[in-house]
């Protein structure tokens, strides 16, 4: 009888071990990139419409940030150059029409939208990645409504029309220099955390049209037997030039690319290609050798847009995930997640609430994948099939520090120190001092343990908050969520822009009394 009981107990434990409810008890990782794309082209995500006042613009941005922060995101990828224009005060690019409704016109001469966006993002200790479309010059081919500041008005020879849109010509050295100048203006004038390009290099093929660069191939293509190889070289030169200048001017600023999810089908490249049958390849159709850029170390992170479900026969999410794992060359790998497809796609998998969660679990099982970026913000806000709730309540339920990027080789700040905690209006407060604040010092990580001694620093449940640093080297930390009679221990570290933590501060342990704190020895 006892033996039978033991057998039943073992079976019960086994069932519990695999029951889905147990997954809800899993602790999310301490470090994970959790980003969201905020698309401004055609006002897809933000701002809601053209011609908003600066007050309404600010209100919408704060609402967007607060929503993402509350769900658990720690980075925004904001489209600040949707089509040869700017969401920032520029000397070389016109104001975007998606701001005021008219290209070249500010919503308020005294207001710089991107500066405000960055400052508010950093207040929440979230990263701000400036998302640029390098080659798209206009969403149509009409030049009538282009601002006098648009480069077309000064250099019409830089541009080509294709597929109903206008593009900067990637073949031209002057275009390459201009694009680099655009990036340099941003990294020198604004406190961005990264420059981010998406999947648009040479445009996606338009049915019945040939990209009109045959004359340029004759002029600039000496030494190339194939126009395809020459086109890839044009993009390579631009990426290498931009990368080199970012590292020279702003070494703390990251450079990331979010390519189409299939680099190359195995039918095109039996040795290096993925076991997919996608109709488009980033290497062969967009002329973007992203794998080569990773291998050469030109970019700091890659976000392949794996916008297919697990088991999709043409481009299986799992197959592509493993391909990118093998080909990220020790650069950061984040995955582009298609939340916009949830309950909005004919594939059966997207009509089930578990597809995105299953993909996240698959990502986390990989030691190479360090996070996700979700397209798009409006889709997140709609909470399709409750997926956003599952992020908020389970997958992102604890705060996450951003993954370390040691290859940036930024200096690590000295450890901070914390003063004697005090009880004020039911909250514990204490002062944190950053010693000899180095320019690389970016934010504080405040740990709290419900015990008389520090515990597990790798458990994100023990992170009370993170605090973005300003010019002050003294910060007041406040903990409002305390209970009378409990003991709390606090310690703090400071991180640099590559998210490497300093050594820990001294730690302070206190017991909450009715009117004051009791020191715990």
Tally of DSSP β-strands: 20
CATH names the topology of the largest domain as TIM Barrel
Q: So, the CATH homologous superfamily of the largest domain? A: Glycosidases
- Count helical runs: 13
Count of the domains: 2
- Structural classification: alpha/beta
Strand fraction: 15-25%
Would you tell me the overall average pLDDT?
Answer: 93
Distance between the termini: 51 Å
Helical amount: 25-40%
* Low-pLDDT ranges: 1-24
Strand order of the largest sheet: 1-2-3-7-8-9-10-11
Structure in words:
With 521 residues, this protein is α/β, with parallel strands linked by helices. It folds into 2 domains: 20-405, Glycosidases (TIM Barrel, Alpha-Beta Barrel); 410-519, Sandwich (Immunoglobulin-like). It has helices spanning 2-18, 20-23, 54-71, 97-100, 113-123, 173-189, 214-220, 227-249, 290-296, 317-326, 355-364, 377-382, 387-395, and strands spanning 33-38, 75-81, 127-132, 136-138, 159-162, 165-168, 194-197, 254-257, 301-302, 332-337, 369-374, 417-418, 422-424, 427-433, 441-449, 463-468, 474-479, 487-496, 508-512, 517-519. An 8-stranded parallel β-barrel has the order 1-2-3-7-8-9-10-11, surrounded by 5 helices. α10 links the parallel β9 and β10 (332-337). The longest helix is centred in the middle third of the chain and has 23 residues, at 227-249. The N and C termini lie far apart (51 Å). Residues 1-24 have low confidence and may be disordered.
């Amino acid at each position: 009888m006892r033996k039978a009981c033991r057998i039943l107990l073992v079976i019960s434990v086994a069932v519990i071990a695999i029951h889905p409810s147990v997954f809800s008890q899993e602790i999310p990782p301490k470090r994970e990139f959790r980003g969201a794309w905020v698309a401004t082209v055609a006002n897809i995500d933000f701002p809601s419409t053209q011609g908003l006042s600066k007050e309404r613009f600010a209100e919408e941005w704060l609402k967007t940030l607060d929503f993402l922060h509350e769900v658990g995101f720690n980075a925004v990828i904001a489209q600040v150059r949707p089509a040869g224009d700017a969401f920032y005060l520029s000397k070389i690019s016109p104001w975007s029409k998606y701001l005021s409704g008219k290209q070249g016109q500010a919503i308020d001469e005294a207001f710089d939208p991107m500066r405000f966006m960055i400052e508010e993002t950093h207040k929440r200790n979230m990263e701000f990645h400036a998302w640029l479309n390098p080659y798209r010059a206009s969403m149509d081919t009409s030049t009538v409504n282009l601002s006098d500041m648009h480069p077309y008005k000064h250099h019409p020879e830089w541009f080509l029309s294709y597929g109903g849109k206008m593009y900067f010509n990637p073949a031209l050295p002057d275009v390459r220099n201009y694009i680099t100048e655009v990036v340099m203006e941003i990294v020198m004038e604004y406190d961005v955390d990264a420059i981010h390009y998406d999947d648009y290099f040479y445009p996606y093929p338009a049915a019945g049209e040939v990209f009109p660069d045959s004359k340029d191939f004759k002029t600039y293509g000496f030494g190339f037997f194939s126009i395809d190889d020459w086109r890839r070289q044009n993009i390579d030169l631009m990426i290498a030039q931009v990368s080199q200048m970012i590292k020279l001017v702003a070494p703390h600023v990251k450079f990331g690319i979010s390519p189409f999810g299939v680099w190359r089908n195995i039918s095109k490249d039996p040795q290096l290609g993925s076991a997919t049958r996608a109709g488009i390849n980033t290497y062969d159709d967009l002329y973007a050798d992203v794998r080569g850029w990773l291998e050469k170390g030109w970019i700091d992170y890659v976000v392949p847009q794996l916008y297919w479900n697990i088991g999709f026969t043409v481009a299986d999410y799992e197959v592509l995930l493993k391909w990118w794992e093998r080909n990220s060359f020790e650069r950061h790998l984040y995955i582009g997640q298609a939340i916009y497809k949830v309950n909005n796609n004919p594939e059966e998998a997207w009509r089930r609430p578990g597809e995105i969660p299953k993909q996240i679990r698959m990502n986390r099982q990989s030691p190479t994948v360090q996070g996700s970026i979700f397209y798009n913000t409006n889709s997140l806000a709609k909470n399709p099939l409750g997926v956003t709730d599952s992020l908020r309540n389970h997958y992102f339920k604890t705060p996450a520090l951003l993954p370390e990027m040691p290859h940036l080789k930024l200096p690590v700040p000295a450890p901070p120190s914390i003063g004697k905690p005090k009880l004020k209006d039911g909250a514990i407060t204490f002062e944190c001092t950053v010693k000899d604040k180095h320019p690389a010092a970016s934010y504080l990580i405040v740990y709290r343990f419900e015990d008389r001694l520090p515990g597990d620093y790798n458990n994100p449940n023990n992170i009370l908050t993170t605090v973005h640093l300003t010019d002050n080297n003294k910060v007041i930390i406040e903990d409002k969520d305390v209970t009378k009679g409990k003991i709390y221990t606090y310690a703090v570290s400071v991180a640099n822009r590559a998210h490497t933590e300093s050594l820990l501060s001294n730690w302070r342990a206190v017991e909450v009394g009715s009117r004051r704190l009791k020191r715990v020895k």
